[in-house]
């Protein structure tokens, strides 16, 4: 009986130590260093592929999963995923009522733009990837010019648990820092670059991001309305043809201003052969 109790105690201790080790690995006990100044991650004018939606912060996870399922692990040096989170009330009243469905209005906390920063345009010229982007309704744009200073935190990325832990610990620390220093910092920008998550909140030129999201959300909704009101052609759906036009017009800018070399994250295990 005594041996059984000792065995159970040892197993419990091993389990607890394993859990603590895992939590430490994913960043639970990492020091959160919040600073303000020049952003070490250069995102200004970078080319992006994106979709926009709205809801709770956690609702954006499905879009991250989707974009990573499109871009395979083989191309992880050619892109970094990102999210821009704009609080609903940062939009003016007219735009809020126009863009946000009445049934989802009360539950909407953020309008979020989720996608990938493209550092090599060959990735979106790949026929399979291009087709999947069109099918899922992704569009192309460029981020606003670099904004400095910003409130900034770098947090380790070692898996999905790092995202969960980071979203709770980092934003809590950032909120305290903003209040203590009486700063106005928004929107929330997250960039997943290799082994790091960059949390960036601009301290100026916030309207550049508001205008970007408002304009692109209007374009996206217009395209969706156009697609739903049109009859599909034998060759392709209206949604695909609309996005084909957008790609043909905008893909030439992809890579022009994206000199940032980055590593991907949350990547799928799929693999495509890169073609010229």
UniProtKB/TrEMBL annotation:
<protein>
    <submittedName>
        <fullName>Uncharacterized protein</fullName>
    </submittedName>
</protein>
<dbReference type="GO" id="GO:0005789">
    <property type="term" value="C:endoplasmic reticulum membrane"/>
</dbReference>
<dbReference type="GO" id="GO:0005657">
    <property type="term" value="C:replication fork"/>
</dbReference>
<dbReference type="GO" id="GO:0106300">
    <property type="term" value="P:protein-DNA covalent cross-linking repair"/>
</dbReference>
<dbReference type="GO" id="GO:0061709">
    <property type="term" value="P:reticulophagy"/>
</dbReference>
<dbReference type="GO" id="GO:0005634">
    <property type="term" value="C:nucleus"/>
</dbReference>
<dbReference type="GO" id="GO:0000421">
    <property type="term" value="C:autophagosome membrane"/>
</dbReference>
């Amino acid at each position: 009986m005594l041996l059984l109790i000792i065995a159970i105690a040892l197993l419990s201790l091993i389990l607890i130590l394993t859990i603590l080790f895992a939590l430490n690995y994913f960043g639970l006990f990492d020091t959160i260093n919040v600073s303000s100044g020049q952003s070490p991650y250069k995102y200004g004018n970078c080319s992006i592929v994106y979709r926009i939606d709205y809801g709770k912060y956690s609702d954006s996870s499905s879009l991250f999963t989707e974009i990573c399922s499109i871009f395979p692990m083989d191309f992880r040096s050619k892109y970094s995923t990102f999210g821009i989170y704009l609080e609903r009330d940062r939009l003016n009243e007219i735009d809020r009522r126009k863009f946000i469905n009445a049934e989802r209005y009360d539950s909407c906390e953020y309008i979020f733009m989720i996608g990938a920063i493209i550092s090599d345009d060959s990735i979106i010229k790949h026929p399979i990837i291009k087709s999947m982007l069109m099918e899922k309704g992704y569009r192309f744009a460029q981020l606003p010019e670099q904004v400095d200073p910003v409130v900034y935190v770098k947090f380790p990325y070692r898996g999905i648990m790092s995202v969960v832990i980071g979203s709770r610990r980092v934003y809590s620390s950032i909120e305290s820092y903003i209040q203590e220093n009486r700063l106005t910092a928004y929107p929330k920008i997250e960039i997943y670059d290799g082994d790091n998550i960059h949390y960036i909140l601009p301290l100026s030129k916030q309207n550049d991001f508001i205008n970007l999201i408002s304009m692109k959300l209007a374009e996206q909704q217009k395209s969706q309305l156009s697609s739903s009101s049109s009859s599909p052609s034998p060759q392709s759906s209206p949604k695909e043809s609309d996005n084909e036009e957008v790609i043909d017009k905008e893909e030439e800018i992809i890579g022009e201003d994206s000199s940032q070399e980055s590593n991907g994250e949350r990547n799928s295990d799929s693999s495509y052969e890169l073609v010229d």
